Amino acid sequence: IRSHHPGPSNKLSFDSVQTTIGNELVAAYREGTFDQCLMVFNTFKSAMTQELTWQSLMPAAVEEESGASLEKKESIEGGYIFEPSDDEILDSLLPRNITVQLYKAFVESDASEHGARMTAMDNAVRNAGDMIRRLQILFNRTRQAAITTELMEIIGGAESLKG
């Protein structure tokens, strides 16, 4: 599925991401249309720095736990009863998690784009200022040379009349 980014003219909201992309991705994954979904987006570091990020969206990346933490987790889990069932909770939360990750990627990419635009505009303004200064110096030198040439011609003409 290609990006369905709302674009700069459309309002980016959590609900729009959920309805346009999130639900579609989850449904396609459940149907077996694809077995893995990767997101590639820019992460905003600063106005001058953006970092290309690859993130696995589906299946969710799960960190492996050590033996001691697994034993502790199993002893804790034994005392809880979930209502509704844990499967129903996961069916509700996982699509929202996908949408949150998608929304975060869009927001990061938008912030990165704005930062890159700000940097580009700052460079353009600085370059234009430098060009104006160089052209002003060139104009002043050219004007000064023309004035000097006229004065030399006037002085030369006055001396020829004397002589």
Shape: rod-shaped
Q: What's the total helix number? A: 3
Query: How many strands, which pairing sense, and closed or not: the largest β-sheet?
Result: 2 strands, antiparallel
Stretches where pLDDT is under 50 for at least 5 consecutive residues are none
Please describe what this structure looks like:
By secondary structure, the protein is α+β, with helices and mostly antiparallel strands. 65% of the residues lie in helices and 12% in strands. It has three helices and two strands, in the order αββαα. It has helices spanning 14-31, 67-77, 86-162, and strands at 37-46, 49-58. A two-stranded antiparallel sheet has the order 1-2. Strand 1 (37-46) and strand 2 (49-58) form a beta hairpin. The longest helix has 77 residues, at 86-162. The chain is rod-shaped, with a radius of gyration of 33 Å.
List the helices and strands and how they pair.
Elements: H1 14-31, E1 37-46, E2 49-58, H2 67-77, H3 86-162
Antiparallel strand pairs: 1-2
Name its key features.
163 residues, two-stranded antiparallel ribbon, rod-shaped
Q: Would you kindly provide a brief summary of this structure?
A:
The chain is built from 3 helices and 2 strands. With 163 residues, it is an alpha+beta fold.
